[in-house]
Specification:
single chain; 146 residues; alpha+beta; three-stranded antiparallel sheet; 3 helices; 9 strands; 17% helix; elongated
């Protein structure tokens, strides 16, 4: 399943507003004061089923475990998944978090691009009307790679 993650805010911006915390299961506490929270309050709200925590920053919802990973390592998770350890069934962000890079999904065979007679890249189903790739290879004496 493809996931689209919001780009992370700059690390310096996050460090001004949030701190890592061992007091709260979200793993984060506020450093700043607004009308909604005071310094030292837990940052983040639990999802309805209680499995994950969300933090709203600059009008965007982020999952707390991605922010905790970013603050701990200084490495932006980007498109990778931040996973809780297998010994952490409650998904407590104060415990170990690891990065998992998914393999990109293969393109279905009928959507792969090949070169046509003019050398342009086209999808294999758009190559020639009613002419198979093998037939085209025989006629033109070329090899088309899928």
């Amino acid at each position: 399943m493809a996931r689209t993650y919001q780009g992370m805010l700059p690390l310096w911006w996050l460090e001004e507003r949030l701190a890592l915390s061992d007091k709260y299961p979200s793993g984060l506490e506020w450093r700043t004061e607004t009308r909604y929270h005071k310094p030292g309050d837990m940052a983040g709200i639990a999802r309805a089923d209680g499995r994950y925590y969300y933090v709203f920053l600059a009008g965007i919802r982020y999952t707390a475990h991605r922010i905790v990973y970013y603050l701990r390592t200084g490495e932006d998770p980007g498109t990778a998944d931040v996973m809780h350890g297998s010994d952490n069934p409650t998904r407590d962000n104060r415990m170990e978090l690891t990065l998992f890079q998914r393999k990109p999904a293969r393109v279905p065979k009928w959507r792969r691009r090949v070169r046509n007679a003019e050398g342009q890249l086209v999808y294999s189903h758009q190559l020639h009307d009613g002419i198979s790739i093998k037939q085209l290879e025989r006629e033109q004496g070329i090899k088309i790679e899928n």
